[in-house]
Amino acid sequence: MLEVYDPLADIWSEEPSMPTPRGGSAAVAYLSRLYVFGGEEPGGTFDENEEYDPTTKQWREALVMSTARHGLGAAVVDGAVYVIGGGKRPALSVSNVNERYTITFQQP
């Protein structure tokens, strides 16, 4: 589920849900779009990433990470998204920054 809070109106509204429900994912906002990385479900962890455009209210698949992981962090620095930490399973974690994505957009 994706919900948006408008602090000026003090209301929550619901947006279209991600195509792939997941927990333990990381998200960043960049140039008016939302990016969601990794995550997990009872069947395993994800290497898939998704991009949400609130203008069109559409989700699309984004570049796949080199390894599936959950419990990760993400930050945007100088036009690139850095994915930090996480693990394939709860007992295995990663401490280094080992993913970097240059953000590019497809025209609708």
Report the major sheet.
Answer: 4 strands, antiparallel
Q: Which of globular, elongated, flat, extended, rod-shaped describes the shape?
A: globular
Helix-strand topology string: EEEEEEEEEEE
Number of helices: 0
Mean pLDDT: 82
Distance between the termini: 23 Å
Number of strands: 11
**Uncertain residue ranges:** 91-97
Query: How many domain modules?
Result: 1
Percent in helix = under 10%
What's this entry about, in short?
The protein is mainly beta.
Secondary-structure map:
Elements: E1 2-6, E2 11-15, E3 26-30, E4 33-37, E5 40-41, E6 44-45, E7 49-53, E8 58-62, E9 73-77, E10 80-84, E11 97-102
Antiparallel strand pairs: 1-2, 3-4, 4-7, 5-6, 7-8, 9-10, 10-11
Fold and architecture overview:
The chain is globular and about 40 Å long. The protein contains no helices and eleven strands. It has strands at 2-6, 11-15, 26-30, 33-37, 40-41, 44-45, 49-53, 58-62, 73-77, 80-84, 97-102. It has one domain (15-102). The protein is 0% helix and 46% strand. It is mainly beta and 108 residues long. Residues 91-97 have low confidence and may be disordered. A hairpin with a 4-residue loop joins β7 (49-53) and β8.
